[in-house]
Amino acid sequence: MNRFILRATFLLYLAVWIGQVQAQNLLLTGHIYDTQTRQPLAGVTIRNDDGQIIAQSNKDGYFQLSREQANAAIEVALIGYKTQHVPLTAEHKDVNIQLDVDPVQLDEVRVGLNSRINRETPGSVALLNTDDIQRGNGMSLQSALNTVPGVRMDQSTLSDSRISIRGNGVRSPWGSRAVKVYINDIPVTETDGTTRIEALDVNNIGRVEIIKGPASSMYGAGTAGVINFQLQRAPYGERSLEVSGLTGSYGLNRTATAYRSGGDEVNSYVAYGWQEYNGYRIHSNDMRRFITGNFQFFPNDRQIITVLINRTTQHSQIPGALTQTQVTENPLQANLTNVDKGAGRYQNWTRVGIGQQYRLSDKLTNSTSLFSYFYDLNHPLAYAYIRNYYQSYGGRTRFAYDPGFPAFATVFSIGAEFNQGLTKGSQYVNEQGSEGAINANIDNQNTYYSLFYQSETQLGPKTLLTLGLGINSLQYRVHDYLAPEQSGIKRFDAQATPRIALSHTFHEALSLHAGVSTGFTPPTGSEIKTVDGGINPSLQAEKAVNYELNAKGSLFRSQLSYDLAVFRMDMSGELIAQSVQQGITIYHNAGKTDHRGAELALSWLAVDNANSSWIQRLRPFAAITYSDFTFVDYKIRNADDAVTAAYDGNRLTGIAPWVVNAGIDFSTAFGIYARCNYLYNDRLPLNDTNTAYHPAYHLLNAKIGYTRVIHKRIKAEIYGGLDNLLNQRYSSFVALNAVAYGGGQPAYYNPSPTRNGYGGLNLSFLF
Q1: How far apart are CA 358 and CA 696, in angstroms?
Q2: What are phi and psi of 11, to 5 degrees?
Q3: Residue 237, exposed/middle/buried by CB under 10 A (0-12, 13-18, 19+)?
Q4: Is the pLDDT of residue 313 over 90?
């Protein structure tokens, strides 16, 4: 017995000793993520200082190294991302490395919920990075979004903008509709389907993912598509403080400060921005204040926690639309009624969100976010004075399960999104910019939910089948305190929105994708009202069926990337605005419309050599959009249901048949860079009758800068640019279907700035 005890004791000590030796021999473990999306990156190559491959990350982005494998530093590399050099010390036990997107290899970047390579992702998905977003002066997303074929951002002043995708949303008189918008996977779109992005500081955005066409099977209601903004995060291993200043034409001034800290346990990005703009036109002054905090915590190797805090103040004057005669006389003038009534938008936004990504097991993961969004609005208009208080709360969750099938490998996703918003609104008579007698006091409580399912099955090594189904519902509850008889509830029955897509990768040069998707867009809170302010019980949601064929690939040793999409979207019940009197617009369903089009994105990496002593990068690019959108069944009826007008066969209002956006990016070893953009916008109909058109126009923008690192601790950048070099007179944001009263002309036009310039300086202090 004693001999047995001695042997057991010896074996126990031996096991402990071996474990200690192995623990000492293990240098570190690590995870590698996409900086912006927080998705784990598989297939990342890790090399030591001698250039030898010593590890590769698995599907969860995980790797581990021993002392014999690594020395003072490692090099982390993945196609589509910037290679990163990571110093190692004896204190390193677990590292969380985050890789930044390479600006010129976007087709290799992981996108979407399942982090697939962009080229292999089914459907039309576009990606913009920090360089794209900062292509202009950093005050607007217009120049960046308009480089994506099929995507359109119209803007007059900084306070008036709308985003449309494949023609959906272009009819919105203010803000955006039919487009679902997220920040860090937190919904920005309000519960009634409207979105205003003015509260978002362009300089805080690190990446934008755009899904074109209905995505209801994963993101709920919306026939246009989805835009997901990812806020900036600190590069791994960097701790810095950046101060910046910008000045430009028409009284443009901006100052900002940003703090970044990227470590293994916490990643912090905190920014404050102040900007003012006197405006191109009379009565178009705009002031903003931005405070943004974006934090990421790594409590263990299975969990990532994200916290978002955003507070924005906006004070904007609204100059209003002009007639053709007024534009010819003086495009700088404002609408006289807007000036007399002090039209403007004075608002404070607050967004708070917390999210968690958790790897429950090797097969099951969950991503969940909770959020609250509220604002107060003081909004004098030409024909009313509005005060609104809005608050919403909700959440989104998604489970992904990979059972590890040996054949037909499948990843299943299931989730839900819920959002409830309450608007307490009062409307008064506008007496020269002051509140007069109250004429409306209404509470709107809107409840929205979405359930979704998606599966991705590998039918073969290069063939992927995607199946999806969304269940979406919306309810409006209106309480009118001054006219109780107009109170009521409008429920939209739950809508099932299926999707099927098949993709096959033949080669790096060609991936083919074919799919059918469906979607629906309910009327917004302002669209659902009748002339007297009650609920229109007959109004229905817009519905869409989208058929699409997509080809993506890279040619000539990955120097030329292309993305071609051909689609047809059949819309039924499209909402059409009808102005019944000054300041009052009602909506009705217009039967059917036909959206047929083609979109082509090209990018040629002519030069890409980081070791060059002269030109390091030279990249021409182009985005071409063709839209053949027509009314199929559109008839105006009177109260007796008699047809008073028919517009069947007319072109869809506000859509230009051809849009071309081309440009070139250039950078040198000396730190000099240049970006140049050209935009051609074809003529477009301003009304449903197709009797008035905005003429075609050409825009040319250019930006040049110089960046340099000083004494290894200070990075300086100075830049300047000119917009509308050709000095074109045009209106990006037009008032569609404007109606003339009293024998005058319709006020279609919000003149955009002629030639204007800007310049700025950024200083970053590295700790």
Answers
A1: 51
A2: -65, -35
A3: middle
A4: yes
